[in-house]
Design goal:
single chain; 2 helices
């Protein structure tokens, strides 16, 4: 369950960062926001891999 919550939080943060970038920052800091999105994507990938291994171990 923690993996699912972590994925949802990462998705929400990615969308919020994009919203802030396009509305308040007027796309001036696109590089910084893209870097933050990539880091959040890697964190979400870690949550996914961790959840997948837990499901594989539970099935055996």
């Amino acid at each position: 369950m923690k993996g699912l919550q972590g994925l949802y939080i990462c998705l929400t943060l990615i969308m919020f960062i994009n919203l802030i970038n396009f509305t308040w920052l007027a796309d001036d800091y696109a590089g910084i926001t893209m870097f933050a999105n990539v880091i959040l994507f890697l964190v979400a990938t870690f949550f996914y891999i961790n959840a997948r291994h837990q499901l594989k171990d539970a099935g055996q």
